[in-house]
Amino acid sequence: MNEAVPDCLVEHYEALIEPLQLPDPGDRHVLAAAIKCQADVIVTNNLRDFPREVLDRFGIEAQSPDVFLGHLFDLNPTSFCSAVHQQRKRLRNPEYTAEELLDIFYHQGLPLTVSKLKEVVDLL
Fold first, then answer.
1. Is the dihedral of CA 6, 26, 53, 108 positive or negative?
2. How far apart are CA 76 and CA 96, in angstroms?
3. Hey, which end of the chain has fewer CB within 10 Å, N or C?
4. Cα distance between residue 52 and residue 54, in whole Å
């Protein structure tokens, strides 16, 4: 990840952790890092542990991976499809058809994303 996105690490957020109140105290570091880097979104399947009323105070929203990917697709369908195509081409053992990859995505909890990609499956 560090090579692909050189500035992806958030540092010096530790002082923000203690005062944060979340249903699972073990998730406070995630919110603290999001606050520190002024993130708009926390992407998680653990939505219930990031309540809207807490995140709203910091201008942050929690989204499932499926909703987040759906937004990315809507922002730039061509780039999104290109990224999925590149991902599929890197899978060599075994290789996957576009339809097989979409089936994997679906079973990984991405039904919204799959429904959007099915409309452009020849680009994948």
1. positive
2. 24
3. N
4. 5
